[in-house]
Design brief:
The chain is built from twelve helices and 22 strands. The chain is α/β, with parallel strands linked by helices and 511 residues long. It has a six-stranded mixed β-sheet with strand order 14-15-16-17-19-18, with helices on one face.
């Protein structure tokens, strides 16, 4: 998490003619804007050029590292043409460091005195990045902060006490509520995470005091901060994994970097001192990732084809709009009737699909094309399996029923780029499309270009420079290439192979 401090100047956007607001027009309340989004896109209530002065400074508590260009704030601004007057509600909050919506009033400005009134141009505001920027989409920020710990999530500005829905035992929920209510300070909000179930009181108290200390440190820094400024940043990935996942069920944690080992061991000693000895330094000659096959798994996770043990396979494609997953039986035919064979393949595919979704960190809309099944009982069993597997995912997911076409729609919370988008870049040869024109297609383009130039040919030699693959096709069709030259019977045709050219590039010159 990180924080920026922002203070706007006195400039306020005006309408043509210098008017501050057209007669009879009411103010429109600003919303949660996206940093770095196109300024002209007013229809989506983005931060436009006229608002830059008032949003020049902000304090931001950042959850993910972001390179957003501008800092948007939730503020009141005067309505301009193309901007809707309908107020919208900002999103923010708790859960597992995630977003939540809830009824009831919210403070106008986080970290400021409640009698300050609504946010105006020139005000300072503390904001948190809750979703990092994606291609063609800016980062999402909120004024409603949440600081996640091992067992708790602190919400400094929301007077609320909640318990994770996954803790179903009513007695345990009451115990946790009573415990946290004694520890929290006036005005603070807490949500008990699933990991807090059955934890002793001293561990819960230690986590609460830690989060309160983090918030106190943020407030101290803010007193002397000059906006924009980073006040706090979320833990690095290694300590974040230890905080959220490491527990007594794990035998050891191996780290192959001395400094990282000491940092992680001290971190575990702070939260779970009884487990600190399980954090060990990996000092073998072999590389850690190779020793445990991580490199091989990463390589598989970057492929679009995933093989199933039954002989079937999955095909996974990421697009701008959604993620498409296709299930194929492959060579698997089974020993029973067709419906049972298809169901067995689909069930295996469902478990592997959820595993791949988590492994590749896929988010947004995910559409799965399962093999068609006729019986309703088979469809219900497939849906039940998907629900069970998705229930183990820490990200928020939603599953729709199987459609008549055998399609299943899944939505999954996306907070950052997928594994593929993080580790890979678009292919410079095909510009990310995955396809280039064939050599035969390019050779036809060369033939048409020769026909176009034949009428004004004034040289004695026609030189065609192409990629080697295209040159091989042209050599086979030399007679076809000479036909457009017509009366220029004395013109020599020379085909040059140039490996430095792109497959789709060619050059024709008369000399």
């Amino acid at each position: 998490m990180g924080a920026f401090h922002a203070q706007g100047d006195s400039h306020q956007p005006r309408f043509p003619g210098g008017a501050r607001r057209p007669p009879g027009k009411r103010r429109a309340r600003g919303d949660l804007h996206r940093a770095g989004a196109p300024a002209g896109d007013r229809g989506k209530r983005l931060l436009g050029p006229g608002h830059q002065g008032a949003a020049r400074h902000a304090v931001c508590v950042r959850r993910h590292r972001s390179r957003a260009g501008r800092l948007p704030v939730r503020r009141r601004y005067r309505r301009e043409p193309g901007v809707s007057r309908r107020p919208r509600t900002a999103r923010g909050g708790g859960g597992r460091g995630g977003e939540r919506r809830g009824p009831g009033p919210r403070p106008a400005i986080v970290g400021l005195e409640p009698d300050r009134g609504p946010l105006r141009a020139g005000s300072e505001v503390l904001v948190q990045v809750v979703k990092e920027s994606l291609p063609n989409k800016g980062a999402r920020i909120t004024c409603y902060l949440s600081l996640p710990g091992r067992y708790m999530v602190l919400m400094p500005s929301v007077n609320h006490l909640g318990v994770s829905r996954k803790i179903s035992d009513s007695a345990e929920r009451d115990r946790l509520r009573r415990m946290v209510s004694r520890l929290r300070r006036p005005g603070e909000g807490f949500i008990v995470r699933t990991a807090g179930e059955d934890r002793p009181g001293e561990e819960i108290e230690r986590d609460v005091r830690y989060l309160q200390g983090v918030w106190d440190e943020i407030r101290r820094k803010r007193e002397t901060a000059r906006p924009p400024m980073l006040l706090h940043e979320e833990l690095d990935v290694s300590r974040r994994v230890l905080r959220d996942l490491f527990g007594p069920e794990y035998q050891r944690v191996l780290i192959d970097h001395g400094e990282g080992f000491r940092r992680c061991r001290d971190f575990v000693a702070q939260f779970q001192p009884e487990l600190a000895r399980r954090v060990r330094l990996f000092a073998e000659e072999d590389l850690l990732f190779e020793e445990f096959g991580v490199e091989a798994e990463l390589e598989k996770a970057l492929r679009n084809r995933v093989c199933l043990r039954s002989g079937g396979h999955l095909v996974i494609h990421q697009t701008e709009a959604l993620v498409a997953i296709d299930v194929n039986t492959g060579k698997f035919v089974g020993k029973r009737r067709l419906e049972e064979t298809v169901l067995q393949t689909n069930l295996e595919a469902a478990r592997e699909i959820v595993r791949q979704i988590r492994l590749r960190d896929l988010g947004g809309i995910i559409v799965v094309d399962f093999i068609d099944m006729e019986e309703k009982a088979s469809k219900r069993e497939l849906t039940r399996t998907l629900q069970e597997e998705l229930g183990r995912d820490r990200a928020k997911t939603r599953l729709l029923q199987i459609s008549d076409f055998g399609l299943v729609e899944i939505t999954r919370q996306r907070r950052k780029r997928s594994l593929e988008r993080t580790l890979c870049q678009s292919c410079p040869y095909c510009s990310g499309t995955g396809r280039i024109r064939s050599a035969a297609t390019v050779s036809l383009e060369v033939e048409r270009e020769i026909e176009k130039r034949a009428a004004r040919l004034d040289g004695r030699r026609l030189v065609v420079r192409v990629h080697p693959d295209v040159a091989a096709v042209l050599e086979e069709e030399r007679e076809t290439l000479l036909a457009p030259l017509g009366r220029h019977t004395d013109v020599a045709l020379e085909i040059l192979s140039d490996a430095s050219l792109h497959r789709e590039q060619f050059d024709i010159a008369a000399r």
